[in-house]
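Issue 218. Parser rejects a valid record. Input:
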Amino acid sequence: MKKKILILNFILATLISPSVSWSQVTADDYKRADDLSKVTSDKVYYGNVKPSWIGSTGCFLYENNTPNGVEYLIMNTNNLTKKKAFDQKKFAQTFESATGKKAEPGKLPIRNILFSEKLGSFAFVYDNYNWICNLKDYKIVKRDRVTERGRQGGWDWGFRDELGSDPVGSPDKKWTAFIKNFNVYIRSNDDKKEYQLSFDGSLGEYYSSYFKWSDDSKKLISYRVRPAEKHMIYYIESSPEDQLQPKHYSYEYQKPGDAIPQKYPQLFDIESKMQIMIDDSRIPNQYSINNILWSKDNSYFTFEYNKRGHQVYQVIKVDAKAGVYKVIIDETSPTFIDYSGKNYRYNLNETSEIIWASERDGWNHLYLYDSGTGAVKNQITKGEWVIKDVSFVDDKRRQIVFQASGKEPGDPYFIHYYRINFDGTGLIRLTEGNGTHEASFSPDKKFFVDTWSRVDAPPVSVLRKSEDGSKVMEIEKADITKLLETGIRLPEVFVAKGRDGVTDILGIIIKPVNFDPSKKYPVIEYIYAGPHSSFVPKSFRAFYGEMHQLAELGFIVIQIDGMGTSNRSKAFHNVCWKNLKDAGFPDRILWMQAASKKYPYMDIDRVGIYGGSAGGQNAAGAVLFHPEFYKVAVASCGCHDNRMDKMWWNEQWMGWPVGEEYAQSSNVENARRLKGRLLLINGEMDNNVDPASTEQLVNALIKANKEFEYVFVPGARHISNGGTYGARKRRDFFVKYLLGVDPPDWNMVEK
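Output the parser choked on:
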């Protein structure tokens, strides 16, 4: 009898335990999650000030989302007045006459509005055409078709065709430089006579058609190129839209360890028709040679040399008469130089100086160089904070306006704007407000619009003076009353100490609309630990996409920036060096443990994780390298072995030559470690991360006799979110293995 009572008590305790959920998750719950984007859409008013400055007028246009629709306003900084940019009712009437389509004031289907300097007309885009509206009579005229710019077909990871550029004319219009039989030629534009300037070009080592003339047309620069074998990857599109049979594609895609074309700058004198020899031995094992710039007096040129492995980065000066090299900036690092994220150079030609960014003192700062001698004249900025970007340089006043983070108390990722003198004196902050700032400066740099916000504080837009940052007037302050009426919960910021017990690690917590603090919720981390940046949102959004939608199904969703990501100190960043499997997991786990102590509703015995691309590698790595903590993972289009992914990104962090650390960080090599639940998703035609990377992980898991699930999406490219189908499978996976209930039977649910 006593045994039966004990069993009954255990069952009752289990039924009422807050850590166990017996509720069903229905198709309606999924729909409610999907509908969050619609429910929260257009519920933030007066919070989208994006200035479009109108020439030299001192005015700017901005769109203003209001309860009555979108207003178009012009702000005049000369007299501090605002007015409607145009009469939307009149415009809607003539718009219908011109296009045959009805338009409603407040909901005009136009974009890219650009006003004329006299404010008498404006251009806009509709239906992929440019149009002009004359405000005198509101007559609308259709103009040319919009040329859509951007990548066609996705990313291009190959090297440019050095022989493929068109001939290049000299600044004085007297000469044309071109390549013929792999050598450099010039042609007189007067008598069309040709002159051969180089004689050693061949198929195996030829001259580049990308020329750089000196401003006085007396010198010419080309590269001598030693080509490298292309690395091609191949695709079979199984289910093309336009035919029954599959299609075959190939694509140039350099991977870590592959050979790289070597480019040696070559100098030619036009008057003597002679080549000036330059010592090629000074720039071995190149990753890149770029940014060739002539001096103002044409007496020398400079270029930037990034040595393979990214531990040496130099600015090299070449004398235009003798061809003699001189290194004027020499960056070295025992780990890596973040050339792809923190490189900044500004040439001051009038004073023969260079403003240069470096992490040499452990933080990203600006330095002033003498470009003649290569000496550091002074460090411009210093301290335990980082330069994020330079807004502009005032050569005459010898001042810099820049963006930085970490200088002010609080969140070290919040961006503020500052002004400083070249000699490092006179540092002043131009922005105020506890949040991250985005500034838009007037063309004359007298004013700027400062918009700041936090994830838990809506935007405020202020007009300020660029001279000292003083506030001129408030332009708009967002109203989120209607947004909060929907029940959506703003993210909460949480801070905990990292693995060193000293460094603050920051993240956000997202809860469902029907959040009940007395319940226990499984935790899902959205991860992207790519070392090229930091990723936890800092500015306000009404809706955080999949994170909010996942939370709505009964989860607490979090996002964290651990060590190894960028935008903090060099030491913080260096954690990733040759160790991408780390992904900040020791910091992330400590953060969640600290959060669960403060918030008992977070059940860290049930932790899931998901991510795409580099985040896909991270998500799968969580259940391989930290299965004691992470129980369920969904990894989309992951670069699961860094030897299989694009060269530039992986060699930047994992180093060169390719060593054993690549295998140590590989999910494929460590597939045997899998515990818990893993769902892999990838697109058949992914041209960002080689889809074979996921397929090789699938192969390794099968060989290791591991249980997992795999969604292969025919025809899809880089679906870092898994695509529509993948997103639903991700939700199902977490519902089943974290909530412990079956997801809806979608074969029985009408679409």
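Fixed in the parser; the record now loads. Residues 1-22 have pLDDT under 50 and may be disordered.
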